[in-house]
Design brief:
By secondary structure, the chain is α+β, with helices and mostly antiparallel strands. The protein is built from six helices and ten strands.
Length: 246
Amino acid sequence: MHGALGYLDRLRRETGVRVTVTHLVARALALSIRQYPQLNGIVTRGGIALRETVDIFLQVATAGGADLSGVKISRADEKSVLEIAGETEARVERLRQRRDRQVERTKSVLDRIPLRILGPIMRLISYLIYDLDLDLSRLGIVKDEFGSAMVSNIGSFGLEQAHAPLVPFSRTPVVVLVGAVRDRPVAEDGCVVVRPVMTLGVTFDHRFMDGFQAGAMAKIFRAYLEDPAGFEDERPAAGTTATAIQ
């Protein structure tokens, strides 16, 4: 992470935007999914429907860590890490001040559901919006609110490594946990040196991804995090089209 940390420091000094490792990971993940668009899908009605855009959901701890919310960065593969950071910062501020109308409306709906039936209700809502393709926005429920993949920074809690389960309700096939960056001894040019190292915990839906694709995506992650500046001028080719796969 030596190159990535230096890049972040430079961006912060030049722009004043609080760009973090989480934003780098979100960008790397979006680029990986763009490279393998067959992973960007939703299991629905016994098949797979591909999403039209690469959207990354960043989980955010609010109320001093007592509550968990988040923001979805739409078309994250088409945005620079600086754009992702700026959009995230503005929306997180609204979340923490409880000024995000959509999030507050959704919470209000869920808070009125008794805990003992919350699970079945969530499964029903998922079925209605994903399998039956119903519009429940009038009830405060937004379709595909969690996007193509989720990212959560556990490093902010001092954790270096962990794994998270997939969230069935979200229909999101990839979850990435960002560990704390720590100095570790590594081999470099035949010598042992101390370098900042980060571990990512990744959980994925095997219906979308196998070991080959996971390895290929890991190479994109490594290349981006080792030299993020080299990727920031790239822009995606023509957008993908939603397709049903039987």
